[in-house]
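Sequence in, structure out. Go.
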Amino acid sequence: MKLILDSVSKYFGKIKAVDNFNLTVEDEEFVSILGPSGCGKTTLLRLIAGLETPTSGKIIFGDRVMNDLPPRDRNVSMVFQSYALFPHMTVADNIGFPLSIRQISKDEITKRVREITDLLKISSLLERKPRELSGGEQQRVALGRAIIRKPDILIMDEPLSNVDAKTRAYLRSELKELQRDIKTTLLYVTHDQTEAMTMSNRIAVINQGKLFQLGTPEEIYEHPSDTWVASFIGNLPMNFFECSLIDKAGIRAIGGSCFTFKSPDQVMKNLENVEGGTDFKLGVRPEDIRITAVRNEDTTCEAEIHLLEPLGDSLIVSLKVGDTSMKARTNPGFKAYVGEHVYITFDWNRAHLFLNSSGKAI
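Output:
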C-alpha cells in the first residue's frame, strides 16, 4: 500500500506535535522515522493508524483519503515499544488473537499461526506464556500478532528499545529480512540512528514535528542538509568549527578561531560564490580527522591529546586546539598518551560547510 502524508499537522492546543508534514512511502518500502524523544514521531504513527485525527492535511492510502476512517477499517498493524501481550494467553493464542476476533475458523488460525511462527523461528514456544519468554522472544510474538492479519501498512514504535544490545543487533537483521518476505509497507519509528541506517530503504529525519531531510541512509550521512541533521546523524557527533573565508597573499583560506588552513581546490569550488569574510561552520566527522607527528604549514595544525577512549575496534581521541575541542576516531593500534602534542589534518573530500546565517549546507 502506498502511503501519502499531504501537509499533515496535529496541534494539541498551542503545541505543534506535527507541523505541515509531507511524506510519500512507496508500496513495500521500509522507511524509518528518525528523531529525538518528543519530536512528534509517535504522534505521526498514531495519525496514520487512526488513533489521532489530524488538525489539517490529508492521510492517503493508495488513492483513498483516510482522515475520517476509524482504525478498525484501515488494515494497519502496530508494534509497540512495550510488548503488550496478553499474560494469560499462550504464544499461539496471542498471535492468533487478531484472527479469532474476526471469527476466522480454528483450522485456518492454526495454519496461519504455524506459518508465522516458522517465519519468526518461534515454533517451539507455542504453548508458553509471555512470562516464560525472553525479551527478544516476546518481541517476536508481538510482531507475529501484528503481521498475521496481513496488514497493508505495518508500523513499529521503537520495538527494540526494551531488548539487550546483542539481541537488538540480531533482531535488526531479522526485521529487515522479514519485511522483505512479507512484502508490506513498513514505517519504523526510532531515535536510534544505527537501527535507521542499517534497516531502512529511506530515512525521514524529524525534529519539532517537522521533516528536516528525507533520503537513503547514504544520502543522509554523506550529505546532511543542515547542521542539526549533521550533528544528529553519526555514532559520534560531527565536529563543528566556527570559520570565515579570508584572503591572504592572494591565497584564499579557511580560518578558524585557532587555526588557518589553505583550502584545497574541492573545498574552494563550494566557496567560489561566497564573499570573503563570510562566517560559516566547517563540519568534520571524527573518522575524517587524521592525526600525525609531522607538521605541514598549509594543511595541519597543532593539537593536544586530552582524553583516550578505547572501544576495542577503534580508539576515540579527544583533542584540544587552543580552546576548541574535537574528537577523532583512529585505529585501535594507535599509540599516544594524554598530554602529547600532535598535528591534525582533515579529509577535505569529506568535509562539510554550513552557512552560519541559516545552518544550511553550502
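Check: The first strand starts at residue 3 and ends at 12. The chain has two domains: 3-232, 239-355.
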